[in-house]
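Quick one: co-fold with zinc ion.
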Amino acid sequence: MRRLNLSGLVLLCALLSQPVPATLAQQGRSVATAPAAASANASASFTAEREAANRITAEQMKEYLYFIASDEMAGRDTPSPGLNATAKFIADKLARLKFKPMGDKGSYFQRIALNRTEIDRDKTRAELAGQTFKVGDDFVPTSSNSGEAVGQLVYVGHGWVIKSKNVNAYEGLDVKDKFMVVAGSGTSIPSGVAMRELKAGDWENPVSYAQRHGAKGIIFVPRNYERAWRYAARSVARTSYQVERLQLGAGQGDDEDSGDKPSTGKLLMIMPSTEMLDALFAGEQLDGAQLLQAALAGQPGKGFALSTNKRLRLSVQIKLTPASTQNVVAVLEGRDSKLRKEYVAFGAHYDHVGANGGGCRPVNGDSICNGADDDGSGTTALLTMAEAFARGPRPKRSILFVWHAGEEKGLWGSEYFTNYPTVPLKQIVAQLNIDMIGRSKKDGDTNPKNRLLTGPEEIYVIGSRMMSTGLADLNEQINHSYLNLKYNFHYDEPGDPERLFYRSDHFNYARKGIPIIFFFDGVHEDYHQPSDSPDKIDYQKMERVARTIFILGSELANAPGRPVIDKQIPASQLEQ
Ligand SMILES: [Zn+2]
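Sure, here it is.
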C-alpha cells in the first residue's frame, strides 16, 4: 500500500484494535474530519456496507454477462439493435429497482443524435494551383458540412481568443473569405490555459471565430495528428457515424450547462495529409513539416497569411442520414436532505465494436466481437451494484449510474454526458470508471499478449492520485481493510506510452474537473477479438473488484465531506 498521509496513519493504528475499523473516510483528513463519537455509527455503517456488498455475487454477474455478451447482442456496436436491446435490458432492471430515470423526458435514456455519413468520393475533392487532392488519400472531412468554396489561406496558430489572458491568435490577420489553417483540434485549449479559467463571453475558439468573421473553412492539424489521421482516413472508406453535437469544431459552449451549442453553419472543415500540408505551405515562412512539428509540440507560434496567389478550391459532399443512440442514466437519491444534492458517479460503457468488420475482424469464421470483458464486465458490475444499493441502507449522497454508449467510437457517450449533463457536474464528487475487470492471468501463462494482464487478486488503478490525495488515500485504505486486492499503479505514470488515462470514459469527467478512479484488468489476448467471450471471464475476480468499488462508492456517499481537489491535471495532459 502506498504511503498514507500522517494523520490517517495515527488514526488507523488506533482503530485497528477495534473489532471493525471506523469509516475510512474519516482517516483521509482531506476528505472529512469527524468527532470520535461518530465512529461507532461509522463502523456500523461500514459493517452495513460490507453486508450490502455481499449482495454482489459472481453467479448473478455470470447470468447477466452471458446475456449482454451473447451473440444475439451482436457485439453491441454504436448504433445497433444489439446495443438498443442491451440498453432496454439495463433500463428494465433499473425500473424494477425503482431507480430515478435521469435520461430525457423521464426515461432512463439520454438520446444522442447521430448522423450516418457517407462521403460522395467523386464530388469531394480539392485543388491548389493545378494540383488535385483526393478525399481519403490527401484530406479527410472532419465535419458533416457539405459545400464548395474557393479562397486564399491564412495560418492562425491555435486559433483562440481569450481576452482575460490577452490571447488573440488573429492580431493583424484577416480571415474573411479565406481558409484558416489551425494547429490544434478546434476544441483543444492553448497550452498554458486551463479549462476552468475559461469564463463565459471571454473566449472564442477557431470555429466560432471563423463563423463570426466569414471564413470559408478550416484546415485542422491536431496535436495528436498521426492517431487522428489514421482514424479519420479509415473512416472515409466506410459508413461512419458522427455525433451531431460533438462535431470537431462544434465548439465548446460558454458554460457547460448552457444547453445547445453554436452550429458550424456552412464552414467546410478538413484534416490534410502531410503531402497536402507540404503543398499548402510550400515556399512559406513555415513549411508543412515545421508546422506539423509546431502542432505536435503544442507550440503553434504566430499566424501569418500565406502567399496571396495561393487559392484553394474545396468541394465536400456528404450524405447525411439521421440516426441515434443513447446513454443509460439513473440515480438513487440519497437520504440526507442536504447531501443528496451531491452525487457519487459510477460509469461503464455498454457498447463494444460490433461484428463483421468495422472494429471487429472475423477470426476462424467467428465474426461477432462479444465484448464480455470489454466492457460487458463493467456494465454487469454496475447493474449488480445498483441492485445492492437499491436494497439499502440508502447512502446520504445520491448515486449516479451512467452506462455510456459509443466509447469504442471515441468516448462519445461520456463526452456527450459531460457536455450535456442531466445532473449538475459541479455536484459530482467523484467518478468511478470500470472498464474491463473480468479477466485474470493464469499461472504459467506465457502468452506475450497477456504479459500485462493482472492476476486474480490484482487490478490496475489509474488516475486516482491525479486530482485528490484524499480520494486516493480512501481508495487504498478501504481496499487494505477489506479484500486487500493488489492495486497496480503501473499505468499511472503520466508518460505511460499506452496512454490508458486517455482511453476510457473517466477521461471526460476528469477534463471537467471531477476526480476520477479508473479500474482496469489489463490488455489481453482476446482484447477486441471475437474470442472476448463470457466463458473466459473470472467471475470471482469480478465479484471481488466490484464489491471493493461498491464500498468505496458507499464511503464517498456517506462521508461528511467530499474529496478535496488538491491537484490540477496540467491542461496539456487534458488533450486526447
Ligand atoms: Zn472498453
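If it helps, Residues 349, 374-375, 407, 435-436, 504 surround zinc ion (CB under 6 Å).
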